[in-house]
Amino acid sequence: MKKSALFLFFLISFCYSSNGFAQDARQDFVLVNKTGFEIHQVYIAPSKETDWGTDILGKDVMAIDEEWDIKFHPKDNVCKWDLRIEDKDGNFVIWEDIDLCKWAKITLHYDGKVATVTFE
After folding, report:
1. 100-120: b (≥16 Cβ within 10 Å) or e
2. How far apart are CA 23 and CA 6, in angstroms?
3. Do 109 and 90 form a contact (C-beta atoms < 8 A)?
4. What angle do CA 85, 64, 37 make, to 5 degrees?
5. In the chain, what is the straight-line distance between the N-terminal and C-terminal CA atoms, in Å?
C-alpha cells in the first residue's frame, strides 16, 4: 500500500513538473528576418515592460532572409511579448503584443516606414 501511494505521488509530481516544462517552452519560436537589413540585436520583453533586458543574439548577426530558432526561458509566465530589433547603427523597430503562446513562427517585415509581422 505504501509503495502504491509513493508511486502515485511521484507520478503526479512528474506530470506537474512535465507540464511546467512544456509551459516554459511554449514561448520558443522561429524568427524570420524579412526586414531588408541585417539584425544586430534582438530584445524580447513582456508587453508593456520598460526594461528590454539583454540582446538574445549576443555577438551574432541575423542576415536578411535568415531564420533562427529562438529558445528562451522567461521568468515571466505570460503570453504577450514585445520584440525590438536593431540594425548596426542602433536604429530600431518594435513590434508589440505578440502572442508567443499562439504563434510558433514570426516573420518580421519593414519597408523603411512601416513595420509589419506575419504569424504561423
Report:
1. beeeeebbbbbeeeebebeee
2. 26
3. no
4. 55
5. 49
- Strands of 80-86's sheet, edge to edge? 41-46, 80-86, 92-99
119 contacts 106 by C-beta, under 8 angstroms: yes
| Residues constituting the chain | 120
Could you tell me if 42 and 81 are in contact, meaning their C-beta atoms sit under 8 angstroms apart? no
Helix (H) or strand (E) run with residue 69 in it: strand 67-70
What φ, ψ does residue 3 adopt, rounded to 5°?
Answer: -65, -40
Condensed to tens digits (0 to 9), the pLDDT of residues 31-71 reads 999 999 999 999 999 998 889 989 999 999 999 999 999 98
The radius of gyration of the chain's CA atoms, rounded to the nearest angstrom, is 18
Cell of 60: 551574432
